[in-house]
Amino acid sequence: MEERVIVRVANLYKKYTSREGIVQAVKGVSFDVKDGEFYTLLGPSGCGKTTTLRCVAGLERIDNGEIMIGSEVVASNHKFVPPYKRPIGMVFQSYAIWPHMTVAQNIAFPLKNMEQKYSTQEINRMIQEVLALVQLDGLGERPAPNLSGGQQQRLALARALVYNPTVLLLDEPLSNLDAKLREEMRLELKGLSHRLGITTIYVTHDQLEALVLSDRIGLMCDGQLIEEGAPYELYMYPKYYFTASFFGVNNILDGRVTQVDRTNGMAQVDVGLEHPITSLIRDIPIEIGQKTQIAIRPENINLDQDSSSTTSMTHSKENINTFEGFVKEAVFLGDFVDYRVDVKGRLFRVRTHPDMRVGPGTRVTGIFASKHACILEQPRITMDQRPETKI
Amino acid sequence: MKPVAWIIEKRDRILTGAVIGVVGVLVLVPLGMLVWSSLRTGRPGFPGGAFSLIHYETAYSDWGTYLTLIRSFFFAGSVTVIGLGLGGLFAWIIERTNMPYREWAYSMTVSTLAIPRMLFGIAWVLLLSGKIGLINKFFQYAFGFRGFDVYSMGGMIWVQALIEVPTAFLMVLGSLRSMDPSLEEAASVSRSSTLKTMRKITFPIMTPAMLAAAIFLFTVNIEVFEIPGIIGLPAGITIFSTAIYLNANVLTPPNYGLANTYAMTFLVLSIVLVTLYRKGTRHAEQYSTITGKGFRPRLIDLGAGRYVAFFIFIVFFIITILLPMLVLLYGSLLPLYEVPSAEAFTKITLQNYVSIIQAPWLGKVLKNTILLMAVAPTACVFLAALVAWVVHRTRVSKKWKAVIDVLSFLPQATPSIVIALCLLIVFLYVRFIPIYGTVWIIALAFVIRYLPFSSRTIGAAVIQIHKELEESAQICRASEMKSFFKITLPLIAPALVNVWIWVSMQSVRALSAALMLYSSKNEVLSTRIWEIWYEGDIAKVSALAVMMIAVLLMVSLIGRIVSARMSHR
Predict the structure, then answer these.
(1) Are B476 and A159 in contact (CB < 8 Å)?
(2) Region B267-295 average pLDDT
(3) Would you identify the CATH topology of the domain A5-236?
(4) pTM recorded for the entire structure
(5) Location of each CATH 2.40.50.100 domain in chain A
(6) What is the spatial order of strands in the sheet that A251-261 belongs to?
(7) Is B37 within a domain?
(8) Which residues of B138-223 form beta strands (DSSP E)?
């Protein structure tokens, strides 16, 4: 059954003038968010994700394209519905809690602006309910600035939810919290969004937040939506160089396709090592002789000290790739050991369970499955926009 | 589209247009009128007359004009040098040395700002005039010779310089405080003596800020009216501001042509100075020495000199607060002013206060003054808030924002007396708005004059309010305007109250505009004091002065309490 689309952003363009001149912040972004879905726009700072969200909210006027919420066009080349007439709730990065009001007054503000008029009792009941929902019971009369950071965050959420908006927009809501509180709120947010089943668009630069919270992630870079998908898919099987390098750490090798075996769904890619790498073909156009890149995650590579046995074992099976080299650096990081393995002058990142410990200088064999060798589509992103890889 | 929907859709533009229109009319029409009528013969408001440069010819073929110009420059220049010298010395002592009671010295120096200039001038005439000055009497009694007559260029400069000390002090203190102490410490570590550090490091770094302060003080003092009016006019020393007053108000029939020509010269001069100041301060920002570090630099040990320094502040307290207050109080308690003697003290009475309270003019004057104190700041704050909203919170194009910005700053470069003269001319022509000779025309002059200060201050407060606070209100179903009024305005309320009080206080104190625009119907307190002073009733003036200072202190106290209550942080 096709789920109903709640938010549709089509071919969105938005530029603004800054001191350096005109900046094209969003260049033709399109995506759909389905009913009850938690959709995250993820990307490095300045990629246009917040601008996109602000266009959905109506805080920015779009230059081109169309935005629909529910069945109504809220922004197009001819039409602009102001934010206060869109069925949305929003939590801002700074929380934007009004400091001259109490907690209850903050929440009552949108209720009093609704077209539908509520009685005082109704308003009070709704405030109590939503405060209980975000676990701020009994704090209604507190002046808003007297709340802690985490409580302000909950209040901002309560204020955005109290009038049952169709869509909830969250702009980096966790970025102002300290690490421990952020982890706590992340789980709570996930629980809340599941319970309420509200359609949500979430903006963040934090890949971990995106992976934990989202049903689907839209990865953005330089004003464009690079790739969309469920967290697991994006992480494990990236289609593009940017996706592969953005999430976690990846070994990315340049190479050329030497063989395509459609019956077994396998391709061979020569990356200048002793053996070509065997890779599972996914829905990516691929031809013999084509230049390509291959991404292998460090945690998907196993290390073996005894080189003779593994070579015999692996090369009997077609789907196992190997390389030989020596350990250049081994760093113990608690939950794993981080190796840099020198393979004919090229460095491979490998992560193993802390049980396996090999010192620098040791000769090792790296082994990985063909399904873990991802053939990437031709890079759409130039190299200088490669994001910093983080451990 | 329905008209209502159209208005809502275009509301930003309509409001912006209205704000530009109102500010433009307020600023440009009077100035335009000034230019126009300076180029015409004939009396303003009467038919006839033709375009001619005759006023300029008359003015600039007369040596008197050039003498007035030279006197104005000499006066403003001397006041700037002395004021900045004393203010700078005070700031350095309080900020950088180990003088005792620095806190007291600070509040004392700043509190002299509260005394209206005109009253300060009157007090100093009572202290230092050749004939009746108490100090001169004392000198004659003790040493057999008279000291110094305040009715002279030197006297004007002395009194005005004392008035400018706290302003200069605050400006220098600000830049001393924002200076990174590590710059000086680095010099000390490099084996530089304290004096050498000051000469080689502190002064050069302070130079741009000091220059900016000097230009600012010069701009203020070339347009100042009160002291040149109270001291200079009887002494026959005219400078630009008093020359305009004489030609437009005292002469019968008034010589508007000459007054306009002077005003034009004055205006051009002021615009040049204010432009220089803005350029200068922009330049100073490049030198910006502000760091977030909170620690104070090491205090310089003055040794025994610290008592000398403290003595200087005691003297300053005596001559700027104690003596003026005492002489006004003393004068107010005598039926007829006379030099103190055992006999004089037996005559002490509250009769002056009683006669003021019973005076037939009091009701009218108080009503006008209170109206002025209420209407001018309210209109000013309202207009300034609208300007701030359009400039900082709407989607209007940069070009239009720049237009509003320049328009709302232009009066900063227009001396009060020039604005008053402009309004005088405008409403001689524009008879269908019958505010000529009412308190409203005085209020209008103050609204225009203090719009730059108000819109800048309120604008700065608006910038402080995070934009997301307003945006979240829009998400919460409030329109743009409602968001501004429900969220931003309450949050900047303390700034609004402060600006309101400041403009209100200025409206009572500032003399020149009221003096240019008043008649028997729209007298206010300041013009009444001027009148009684020139009638020669010193005792009554003293009583009025004491009452005025008391009221001003009360208003500023109430204001401080209100704005502290409204502050949410």
Answers:
(1) yes
(2) 64
(3) Rossmann fold (3.40.50)
(4) 0.80
(5) 250-378
(6) A277-280, A266-270, A251-261, A291-296, A374-376
(7) no
(8) none
CATH code of the domain in which B324 resides: 1.10.3720.10
B472/chain A closest Cα distance in angstroms:
6
Q: What percent of chain A has pLDDT over 90?
A: 47
Task: Let me know how long chain B is.
Answer: 569
* Whole-number Å distance between alpha carbons of A113 and A106: 12
pLDDT exceeds 60 at position B184: yes
Looking at the domain assignment, is residue B318 inside a domain? yes
Residue B217, in any domain of the structure: yes
- Range A123-132 average pLDDT: 94
Cα separation, B107 vs B129, whole angstroms = 29
Number of domains comprising chain B: 1
Phi and psi torsions of A45, nearest 5°? -65, 140
**Range with the largest mean pLDDT of A300-314, A358-372, B166-180:** A358-372
- Cβ atoms of A28 and A13 closer than 8 Å: yes
For chain B positions 221-240, those within 8 Å of chain A (CB to CB) are none
Q: Does B13 touch chain A (CB under 8 A)?
A: no
Write out pLDDT tens, residues B466-495.
888 999 999 999 988 788 888 988 888 888
Residue B49 placed within a domain: no
Could you tell me what percent of chain B has a pLDDT over 90?
33
B568 touches chain A (CB under 8 A): yes
Residue B36 has pLDDT above 80, yes or no: yes
Question: Are A92 and B468 an interchain contact pair (Cβ–Cβ within 8 Å)?
Answer: yes
Q: Which CATH architecture has domain A250-378?
A: Beta Barrel (2.40)
Region at B199 (left for phi over 0; alpha for psi -120 to 50; beta for the rest): alpha
Contact A82 B474 (CB under 8 A): yes
Higher-scoring residue by pLDDT: A250, B281: A250
